Amino acid sequence: MAALLAPRYQLHTPDLPGYGATPGCVPYTLEGVAAAVAQAAPPRCHVVGWSLGGQLALAWARRAPRQVDRLVLIAATPSFVQRADWPHAVTQELLLGFSAELGTDRDGTLKRFAALQAQGDDNARDVARKLRAAFTAGGAAGAAALEGGLRILLETDLRAGLSSIRQLVLVLQGDHDSLVPLAAGVHLNRRLPSARVTVLPGTAHAPFLSKPREMAAALHEFFDE
């Protein structure tokens, strides 16, 4: 994606706290991670967030409206786990299972998580392979960051604050996403005051790996209008 976007934009792709050479933050919370990323970013910028990064982007946009210009949410949701009034998510037990397995079989757990993210995609095998490769790249996460990230996924529910996010928002959603159902993207589109949704057919939780050119085209249209 960076290669497709770089000719037209100045890109900043920092490692999240606890990934690569970036030190972690204590406590490892949604607001703490968002504050750390915001501090390292330009004073005015567009923000693109994927999955957990989408929740970070929402928290960042709410806390720093003068810094965040436009917002792109890829496979994002206000709540990753099901709640009494929120069925558009995975079960809490699924994420708790991943959390428990991390300590005993990190590699196997990450492979299973990659398979879940790719499930349903027209290019599932290739997407899963690319995700597995990313887990072992130079920016791979430390144990504390992985555990902290899962805890954020379990605890975060941003639905109540969506109406306070006033930036223009593009919601990009795969129609075969097993982790973040399409209904979650529809909810964001309805509750965010200035949002639109674009559905990428045949993609799952990592549409930028499955259809990078279609994704880049959607970003170009949104940022350049």
Write a structural description:
The protein is of the alpha/beta class and 225 residues long. It has a single domain, classed as Alpha/Beta hydrolase fold, catalytic domain (Rossmann fold), CATH 3.40.50. 45% of the residues lie in helices and 12% in strands. It contains ten helices and four strands; from the N terminus they run ααβαβααααβαβαα. It has helices spanning 2-5, 30-39, 52-63, 92-102, 106-118, 124-135, 143-155, 182-191, 207-210, 212-224; strands at residues 45-50, 68-74, 168-174, 195-200. A four-stranded parallel β-sheet has the order 1-2-3-4, with helices on both faces. β3, α8 and β4 form a beta-alpha-beta unit. α2 (30-39) crosses α3 (52-63), α4 runs antiparallel to α7 and α5 (106-118) runs antiparallel to α6 (124-135). The two termini are 20 Å apart.
- The CATH top-level class label: Alpha Beta
Q: What is the CATH architecture descriptor?
A: 3-Layer(aba) Sandwich
Mean pLDDT rating:
94
- DSSP E strands, number: 4
**Biggest beta sheet summary:** 4 strands, parallel
- C-alpha geometry: globular
Strand content: 5-15%
Number of domains: 1
C-alpha-based Rg, rounded: 16 Å
Secondary-structure element series: HHEHEHHHHEHEHH
What gap, in angstroms, lies between the N and C termini? 20 Å
